[in-house]
Structures are given as structure tokens and as C-alpha cells.
Amino acid sequence: MAALKIGTAGVPHSTKARSTQNGIKRVAELGLECMEIEFVRGVQMKEPTAIKVNEIASKVNVELTVHAPYYVNLNAKEADKVKASAKRIMDAANIGSIAGAKSVVFHAAYYLDNRPKEVYEAVKKELIEIRKQLDDQGNLIHLRPETTGSPTQFGTIEEIVKLSTEVPGVYPCIDFSHLHARSIGAYNTYEEIYQVLDFVKKELGVAALEQLHMHLSGIDYGDKGEKKHLILNESDMNYEAVLQALIDFNVGGWLICESPNLEEDALLLKETYEKLQK
Ligand SMILES: [Zn+2]
Question: How far is the CA of 71 from the centre of ligand 1 (A)?
């Protein structure tokens, strides 16, 4: 069985004295196995803290991933905005790597009024450059563009997987809830989730499934896609179908829960995952 680790998007709510370090310890106490460090409003963590975070995570055996700032658009019209976006991803990758994170996830771009094909090429060009800089620094952290929740955002499963086939060091982050919201209700049956994983396997090989970065939570959506995250059991997200497909494809890596109740739903996912395996 590939090792699938389940954990929270950020510091669990039940953490006393909120900090990344205490959050990691709390994740371990709860019996969860990974945590995403949320740099969504900017990378504020400094190197000495990242070093401590790395030590604590190794000690309590919690694996880390990083979410880069939301304020990223590799398809911005203005060159300085593209540059600032690339820097935000680089900063998250650099501090994340020092903290011991294996993967950095980000929302790559907005289509604006460009054709998806052109946006794809713009994102690809920037990711090649970011990857080159990281490689030059010896930073092997996985760059993970995410499947996004709104049709105005770059990030269909096809786009994300194609980038992963064409840019070495780029891998997919599959947000199942975003796929569901973006398509206004699809990607919510076992067959549909099976097709997604089968597509990843065919395009990227079984190794991509053995180390996959994923997001899952309840989600509210309308005709423009994602509205907000919900508690799993207060949404129509068919998480059991997702978990069953993950088991059947022997998927490993990190399944990060972004529900508003964080650790409660992460624990629900873990319990359900274990129950379905029996
Ligand atoms: Zn995200």
C-alpha cells in the first residue's frame, strides 16, 4: 500500500498558542500525518523559524507541504506583476524547502481575456524559469500548480497534467472539491474520480500516483464555480467516492483537508479511508 498521509490546511483549530510549530505537534497528537503551511497571505516565515519547523516535523513524524500566496497571476498583463508572482512562488518554495516541505502548491493564473492555449504557454514559460532557478539552487521541492475552483482561473485537470508532462519538476496538485465546483457538480461519482486518476496514471505514470498532492473539503458552488469551502457533511461532496478511488489506485502522498473545521474533517477523512480499506 502506498503511504497516503492525511492532514490539515494550516494549524489545527484545537492548537493551544497558535504557531506553525505548535500546529505540527497538534497534528501529531490528533493522529494525523501531514500539514500544509499556509503562506496564502504572504511568506512571513523567516529562515530560523523554518529550521525549527523542520526539526519539529521530523521529530513528530509529520510531513509538510506549502501553499504559496493567493496573490499570483503568471498571466498578468503587466510584466512587473508576473515577476512579483514568480517571486512569491520562489519565496514559498525556498522557505518551504528549509522547513522540509516536499511540495509547494499554487494557483497559477487567471485567463483574463486571453485564450486558454495562450495562457497555458505563458504559465509554462514562467514555470520553466522558476524551475531553473530552483534547480540552480539545488532546491528539489515539487512545483504543484493546482486544479482551481472557478472557470475564470487557469487550472483544469487537463492543463495541470499537461504542464506536468512538459515541465520536469512540475507535478499536479489535484483539488477534488475545485474540480467539482468548477464543473458545477461533476467529478462527484466514483466513475468520474476514477477517470481523473486513470488519466494521471496514463499521462504521468504510476509514480505520480504514489506521490500525489491533493486537497479535499466540502464546497459550495454556483454557476460561476467555487463560492466557499464547507464542512464535508454539510456539502454534497462525495468524499467516500474520492477515498475509494484513492484506495483502488493505491494513491500515496498528501491529502490536505481545507474544510472550515480543519482537523474534524481531516479525522473524518482518515477514519473513512481506514474503514473503506477493510
Ligand atoms: Zn489552493
Answer: 11
Express each pLDDT in 124-141 by its tens digit: 999 999 999 999 999 999
For the domain spanning 4-277, the CATH number is 3.20.20.150
And the C-alpha cell for 31? 493522529
The DSSP secondary structure of 102-142, one letter per residue, reads: SEEEE---B-TTS-HHHHHHHHHHHHHHHHHHHHHTT--PE
CA 165 – CA 259 distance, rounded (Å): 30
Say if residues 114 and 153 touch (Cβ distance below 8 Å): no
Convert the pLDDT of each residue in 21-67 to its tens digit: 999 999 999 999 999 999 999 999 999 999 999 999 999 999 999 99
- Stated pTM of the model: 0.97
Q: Which cell is 183 given?
A: 464543473
The answer to whether the beta carbons of residues 210 and 250 sit under 8 Å apart is: yes
> Could you tell me the distance, in angstroms and rounded to a whole number, from the CA of residue 146 to the centre of ligand 1?
6
CA atoms within 13 A on the CB side of 88: 24
Amino acid at position 165, single letter: T
Rounded to whole angstroms, how far apart are CA atoms 132 and 75?
19
Q: Which amino acid is at 187?
A: Y
**DSSP element (H, E) containing 25:** helix 20-29
Instruction: State in Å: Cα 190 to ligand 1 middle.
Output: 23
Q: Which three cell numbers stand for residue 13?
A: 483549530
Decide if 231 contacts 225 (C-beta within 8 A): no
Angle between the 116-136 and 79-98 helix axes, to the nearest 10 degrees?
Answer: 40
Going from N- to C-terminal start, the domains of the chain cover 4-277
* Cell numbers linked to 66: 506549502
9 Cα: distance to centroid of ligand 1 (angstroms) = 9
Residue 48 CB contacts under 8 Å (≥ 6 apart), including other chains = none
